Amino acid sequence: MRNTFISRNPSILIFLAVLAAFTIGVTLMSEAFGAGVISTSFVKTLGKTLCLALVAVAMDLIWGYAGILSLGHFAFFGLGGYMIGMWLMYERTKEIVAGSMAGNPIPPTEQEIVDGIGTQIFGVVGSSEFPIIWMFADSLFLQLVLVVLVPGLLALVFGWLAFRSRVTGVYLSILTQAMTLALSLYLFQNDSGLRGNNGLSGLQNVPGVTASQDFVSIWFFWASALALAVGYIFAAWIVSGKFGSVIRGIRDNEARVRFLGYSVEGYKLFLFTVTAMIAGIAGALYYPQAGIINPAEIAPIASIYLAVWVAIGGRGRLYGAVLGAVFVSLVSTFFTGGQAPDINLGFYTIQWVDWWTILLGLSFVFVTLFAPKGIGGLFDLLAHRRHPDRHGADLGPDKGSLQEREATE
Q1: pLDDT tens by residue, 163-222
Q2: I need a labelling partner for 155 at 20 to 30 A (CA). Which of 83, 112, 328, 379 fits?
């Protein structure tokens, strides 16, 4: 059992147990199951937080383990939300239009219903025609495929162009941020096909579902918890084997890994594309709980926030990414939701809604300077794992490299 996947990653069982206990506890205390201790709106907040934790895991894979600071992964998150949002809005509008035409003496044709849907959706931007990107909006299966495919293709094309040119470091971060900004500015236009600044709304109304939001919110909460569990296991599997060793090597010394004969660009491109797909799945679960998505969600600042979450939680630790996202999300909800009381200093009143972003920025600076391991580093101290056990002589030229006995075990 010493070399099994679970034995190399004991944190997986702990994480899954905590997540399962949390999910069961929230379910039993929700309004959907009678207790009513946790409101429906807060269940949605918790569900969204789990989605943010999933995209943080993706960010930790690409940044914490591969050393690629991507400031564009929230764009993939938003694209996943747009893909599922198109189906939700189309089918919901179809129900409304068909219901309004049901009383007509002559039953409406299929084309009349489609025209009515187009007018309802795109009338706000002065149009009634369906753009070509909506050609699969009536198919849930195809839109679910696009949730993964669209972010994946964008990441594949962008990554291939960037990595083949060997763009690294801060220059790559700037490029990913430029990609995010360009996509956001394009979506703000009314002729983008996604309703411009208005975005897609009413996403909390699932077509064909007559249950109350109490139950819908708990269903999405379950789906978010399941997605996070699967995503965490998948990420742990990636970083535990040879692939994980190579991407760590790329992070620590890219030139040496390339000299050893590994296709550095291929590893980077694969990981960049896979993490974009994970981000798309997280977005597809997040925005039906948020109820609306617009281009502001894809603004570059959102991807910067994502990097801050991972840094605060402790990059290079999957559970650290989850902790950072959960901590910042819930604290942000507390400070920006009016729950934190204002502080009157006499000459000035501190309103936490205005000061929250400053606190977040200061927290990032503090963690970077004084606690680079983030919140996850506290668990290392509790588990007495600050320094790994070493056995035998060094096999490499650097202090702390792989040891003789470790290489043979």
Answers
A1: 999 888 899 999 999 999 999 999 999 888 899 999 999 899 888 888 888 899 999 999
A2: 328
The model's pTM is: 0.88
Contact 114, 313 (CB under 8 A): no
C-alpha dihedral sign at 34, 35, 39, 43: negative
Could you give the C-alpha distances from 81 to 279, 303, 368, in angstroms and in order?
10, 15, 31
Q: Return the ∠ at Cα 278 (arms to 285 and 26), rounded to 5°.
A: 40
Among residues 130, 114, 108, the alpha carbon closest in space to that of 194 is found at 130
- What residue has token string 């995010």? 180
pLDDT in tens, 141-167: 999 999 999 999 999 999 999 999 988
Burial tier of 83 (Cβ tally within 10 Å: 0-12, 13-18, 19+) = buried
- Look at residue 106 and give its three-state secondary structure: coil
Q: What is the largest CA-CA distance in the chain?
A: 89
201: enclosing H helix or E strand: strand 200-201
**3-state class (DSSP) for residue 61:** helix
Return the closest-CA partner of residue 179 out of 60, 313, 276, 290.
276
Is residue 234 within 8 Å of residue 53, measured between CB atoms?
no
In the structure encoding, which two tokens stand for residue 10, read together?
């004991």
Question: Residue 398's CB: how many other CB atoms inside 10 A?
Answer: 9
For residues 105 and 26, what is the distance between their CA atoms, to the nearest angstrom?
49
